[in-house]
Design goal:
- This protein folds into two domains: 34 residues; 152 residues, Glutaredoxin, CATH 3.40.30.
- The protein contains six helices and seven strands.
- A seven-stranded mixed sheet has the order 2-1-5-4-3-6-7.
- Helix 3 runs parallel beside helix 6.
Length: 212
């Protein structure tokens, strides 16, 4: 009678363990690769392209805020992104929330201190009151009107339907900064809070652009 093969130690168990570990590692590596592929898409969700104009969009519900100093009256008119060329410009798009306004306040303060020539530069603030805490939209508009009274040379747009955020693919509850040259082409864009280095980068860039 032939001797039957025998297994020494724990070979069957070790083999199954190795197979299980290999399968686990393959799944883990696959998930890592997928996450690396899609992470840039999540970080850069907006569709604003460098050296191109911003995606076309218009605002009719509220729109651009006008202030008549003689009568102390405010009025709204339709606004369209086709009106952006003509000056070096910083577009500040913010949700109608204090937290969003504060996100890039250091840049706005730096712009005020830069004393850029008003005939060549303008700040355009677009406020998405569709992305505001429920019941606060009226208070947000009052705050914007106060800012327009204080800085009549700046441009303020109230977007009650969130058209701009949708057209540009911007993040909710956030603040986005876009720098345009006089031709309306994008020279800098970030959806989120700027670092101190990025604030300085934008200020340096603005000083160069207003000379064009």
């Amino acid at each position: 009678m032939k001797n039957l093969p025998t297994f020494r130690g724990k070979c069957p168990t070790s083999l199954s363990t190795r197979i299980s570990l290999q399968g686990h590692n393959m799944i883990k590596n696959s998930l890592l690769i997928i996450s690396l592929i899609f992470t840039p898409l999540l970080v850069s969700a907006h569709n604003i392209q460098d050296n191109q104009r911003v995606p076309p969009v218009g605002v009719r519900d509220k729109g651009e805020l006008d202030y008549d100093k003689t009568t102390n009256q405010f009025n709204y008119k339709n606004w369209n992104s086709s009106q952006l060329p003509g000056k070096t410009r910083v577009i500040q798009h913010i949700a109608g929330r204090t937290s969003a306004k504060e996100m890039n306040a250091p840049l706005i303060d730096a712009i005020k201190q830069a004393n850029l020539p008003r005939e060549r530069y303008q700040t355009t603030t677009i406020v998405n009151t569709d992305d505001a805490i429920i019941g606060t939209a009226m208070f947000v508009r009052n705050s914007i009107e106060s800012s327009k009274r204080e800085f009549p040379w700046s441009q303020f747009i109230i977007d009650s339907k969130g058209n701009v955020a949708k057209a540009w693919g911007l993040t909710e509850k956030s603040s986005a900064i876009v720098v345009l040259d006089p031709q309306g082409n994008v020279k800098f864009v970030k959806d989120g809070a700027l670092t101190s280095a990025e604030v300085q980068q934008v200020i340096d860039q603005l000083h160069q652009l207003v000379q064009q």
